[in-house]
Amino acid sequence: MRRFSLWLLVVLALIFQVTIFRKIELWGMRPDATVIILVYMGLGLGSVAGALFGFLLGLANLAILSTSMASMPLAGTVVGFVVGRYATKVMYESYLVQLVIIFVSVLVFDAVNLAWADLSGLPVSLLRYSLGSAVYTSVAGVTLAIVIERIIGLRLVSQR
Prior knowledge:
Distance between the termini: 16 Å
Radius of gyration: 15 Å
Structural class: mainly alpha
Number of domains: 1
Helix content: over 70%
Shape: globular
CATH architecture: Orthogonal Bundle
Strand content: under 5%
Number of helices: 7
CATH topology: Arp2/3 complex 21 kDa subunit ARPC3
CATH class: Mainly Alpha
Largest sheet: none
């Protein structure tokens, strides 16, 4: 059942990314469903599985969203590994901790993608584009987790 629910989350993340999250744009920012699902996979499965899912989600983004950011599989791998390796050392069942983990993960994801494109403008780009997106994505991610846990009854994060 657990593997089925993880694959269901992957499919939901991609569906949300191309449908719902495109429509809830706020001041030019959209939440990133890829990072949200990647964080919960890293928390639930650990660093190796998080890195693998990050790579696969990055490839899926390249294929489905037809984006030109070839660094997305690398960024997904880095975020999945780091969340699975280091975030599992904290008490992550708290929604506030999940919010912070998603926030930092968005910044890391964007930093890898932006550094791939232009390393010299990285700090300005992170301040200009990524901070607002990180706040929006983290709030949307925790809200989505609460809805899934309360309505569907599927616990996304639990102690291993």
